[in-house]
UniProtKB/TrEMBL annotation:
This is Putative metal-dependent hydrolase YjjV. The gene is yjjV. It comes from Paraburkholderia caffeinitolerans. Its EC number is 3.1.-.-. PROSITE patterns: TATD_3. A divalent metal cation 1 binds at H6, H8, E96, D205. SUPFAM superfamilies: Metallo-dependent hydrolases. Keywords: Hydrolase, Metal-binding.
Length: 262
């Protein structure tokens, strides 16, 4: 079994065939799909989708790209939603949260304000964090350390070996997906090949970060096994070994995955 630890299955790109996409993923061997929220407006959406989709689970959080529209009271709503979800076996953590220094025009202080507030929630409720780390690895890591968050996933990791090891030392796992399938992505491929297997989890970020064979097309969660084939070849192991290892790693990163039945 494979686990897609990051898939925006609620995105509008899936409105026409969402159920078919989820069924195709399951048929391909993807037994779990983690659906992270991005804003207060989709908290209820990702929860409902996880409950009606076989094998799906969800996380709740406010994405850094949505902080310009977010209001302070959204954090109060998030806290209430998290508290109410603790008895829900399909709820796995706080996410997608973090910082983005790639997209121009974002207010750094505003991003940091929401990131810190959500890390406090992760710490308060002892929940893992699913972190957006685009061009922000060091700053995201500082926040994890500051708030004592020692479990979760650095999503779509693309930092240095030094940064990777710092996240691993903090107890975080590193998400790899379609980017490893591009031969020109030398740094990501080196990381994916050489980091300890215990640190790696699989993801798609569907509908985004498509693999090379879907370049500029919609990504889907059923691509995880084929991405896994590429990653396994880079590591000199079998896809079966990689599936077994990364599935165990996903449960270590998001322990509440063990609570939900398929």
């Amino acid at each position: 079994m494979w686990i897609d630890t990051h898939c925006h299955l609620d995105a509008s790109e899936f409105d026409a065939d969402r159920d078919a996409v989820a069924s195709a993923a399951r048929a391909s061997g993807v037994g779990r799909i983690v659906i992270p929220a991005v804003a207060r407006e989709n908290f209820a959406t990702v929860r409902a989708l996880a409950h009606r989709t076989l094998g799906a689970v969800y996380a709740l959080g406010i994405h850094p790209l949505y902080t310009p529209q977010a209001r302070d009271e959204d954090l109060d709503a998030l806290r209430a939603e998290v508290a109410a979800s603790l008895d829900d076996p399909r709820f796995v953590g706080i996410g997608e949260i973090g910082l983005d220094y790639f997209v121009p025009g974002l207010d750094d202080a505003r991003q940091q304000y929401f990131y810190d507030a959500q890390l406090r929630l992760a710490s308060e409720f002892d929940l893992p964090a699913i972190c957006h780390v685009r061009k922000s690895q060091d700053q995201v890591l500082k926040g994890l350390r500051r708030h004592g968050v020692r479990r979760g996933i650095a999503h779509a990791f693309n930092g240095s070996f030094q940064q990777a090891n710092a996240f691993i030392e903090q107890g975080m796992h590193l998400g790899f997906g379609g980017n490893v399938t591009f031969e020109r992505a030398l740094q990501i491929r080196r990381l994916a090949a050489q980091l300890p297997l215990e640190a790696i989890v699989m993801e798609t970020d569907a509908p985004d970060i498509s693999p090379s064979w879907l370049y500029r097309a919609r990504n889907t969660p059923d691509q995880v096994p084929r991405i896994g084939d590429v990653l396994a070849a880079l590591r000199g192991m079998t896809p079966e070994e990689l599936a077994l290892g990364t599935t165990a790693n996903a449960v270590a990163a998001l322990p509440r995955l063990a609570l939900s039945s398929a």
